[in-house]
Design a protein that fits this description.
Elements: H1 4-8, H2 28-43, H3 48-67, E1 74-76, H4 80-90, E2 93-98, H5 104-115, E3 120-125, H6 134-143, E4 148-154, H7 166-173, E5 177-181, E6 198-202, E7 214-218, H8 220-225, E8 236-237, E9 245-246, H9 260-276, H10 278-298, E10 302-303, E11 315-319, H11 325-334, E12 340-342, E13 345-349, H12 356-370
Parallel strand pairs: 2-3, 2-4, 4-5, 5-6
Antiparallel strand pairs: 1-7, 6-7, 8-9, 10-11, 11-13, 12-13
Helix pairs in contact: 2-3, 2-9, 3-9, 4-5, 6-7, 10-12, 11-12
């Protein structure tokens, strides 16, 4: 086992970085793994190809443990979006989805609806309806005129930081497929992923594995109901001696080979997460979130994200007073604090690696903001 302090020591971000929801600075162990695999690719000594080929199974093995699936239920992807596209094109029937979800999900469903002539039918929760809670989903399922066969949600909302109640959703949707875009929570929160039928994530945010990394996991129910429609050479079998056919299991939901260096980066990130335990990372993040709340309250910044530990992850959304977003953004910039600002709010996202120095810089920026009125 790895302690949380040992885990946090494996990150080297500069003080002031509070934007893990946009991009997670790559772990030092991930960079070392990239160097090792890159050197193997540069020299390609005898047996090197076997080492590169092993990275796919390595990712699937550790990812499967983290989501409560078998290895044959997991497929490597280069990001979250390809997994969602594979899923969307494989569905038949109506899919309940909120218009305010991060665009990857609604766009995948809209593209699939257009390409399949209506076999896939998005059932949209209108913009501004609020957090995608079990009660909201239950009411929309009751009102739906179309048959809904799946519900698609984000594990953590990218705008508000709201963490979806997977157990509550599973209870209200019954036997329908539950599709989860997990990018804003995977690696930051400990949740029952086994309740979802599809879990798609990338490694560039809370896993700190860099771009080009990800995986998608499917339940047996999902593999029975979804029809692979975007399979490429690596998602098929039989060729060159026979007409290609889709490979069984999750492997059918892939097109081209994934970069083995990217797979190695993802694997070492997942292995480090397994060694420390997701619960330990979540606890450290929760502590940092509470400290951001305290600073926001001290300086009168409205907190729009939930304060309930069961409804949050690592994102805190702050809304400054009317007309004061520019002043807050300037104060943060002047103190070297990196955050995301959009739609009149500031999104602060902390991680287990967030230091006291970084939080002190954030507080100093808030002092400057508060004294600039």
């Amino acid at each position: 086992m790895t302690t949380i302090d040992e885990y946090a020591a494996g990150f080297a971000e500069e003080p002031g970085y509070l934007d893990h929801a946009a991009f997670g600075p790559v772990q030092t162990a991930v960079l070392e793994e990239q160097r090792v695999l890159g050197t193997i690719q540069a020299h390609m000594r005898f047996g090197a190809m076997e080492t590169l080929d092993e990275q796919d199974a390595r990712v699937r093995a550790v990812a499967a443990r983290l989501v409560g699936r078998r290895e044959d239920q997991v497929v490597s992807q280069s990001a979250t979006t390809p997994g969602l596209l594979h899923t969307a094109f494989g569905i038949t029937g109506g899919v309940l989805v909120a218009a305010d979800e991060y665009p990857s999900m609604p766009l995948a469903l809209a593209s699939a609806a257009s390409a399949t002539g209506g076999r896939v039918r998005p059932v949209v929760i209108e913009s501004g309806a609020g957090w995608v809670t079990p009660s909201l989903v239950a009411s929309r399922l009751a009102d739906a005129q179309d048959e809904v066969t799946a519900v698609a949600v984000s594990l953590v909302d990218w705008r508000t930081g709201y963490r979806t109640d997977l157990a509550g959703l599973r209870e209200v949707i019954g036997d329908r497929l539950l599709i989860v875009d997990a990018i804003q929570g995977f690696g930051a929160v400990d949740v029952p992923y086994e309740l979802a039928d599809v879990v798609a994530t990338g490694g560039q945010k809370w896993l700190h594995a860099g771009w080009g990394t990800g995986f998608t996991a499917f339940s047996d129910r999902a593999l029975e109901r979804l029809r692979p429609a975007l399979s490429g050479p690596h998602g098929t079998t039989g060729w060159p001696l026979e007409v290609p056919s889709v490979r069984p299991g999750a492997a059918g939901f892939t097109m081209s080979r994934i970069d083995p260096v990217a797979q190695a980066r993802m694997a070492v990130s997942l292995e480090r997460l397994t060694a420390v335990g997701v619960d330990a990372v979540q606890e450290r993040i929760a502590d940092r979130v509470e400290r951001v709340f305290d600073i926001a309250d001290e300086f009168g910044l409205e907190v729009e994200s939930s304060r309930d530990p069961a409804e949050r992850a690592g994102i805190v959304v702050l809304r400054p007073a009317e007309g004061r977003l520019t002043a807050l953004s300037a104060a943060l910039h002047n103190h070297g604090v990196t955050v995301s600002a959009r739609l009149g709010t500031v999104r602060v996202s902390v991680f287990a690696s967030t230091t006291d120095e970084t939080l002190d810089m954030f507080r100093d920026a808030c002092i400057s903001y508060a004294t600039s009125f």
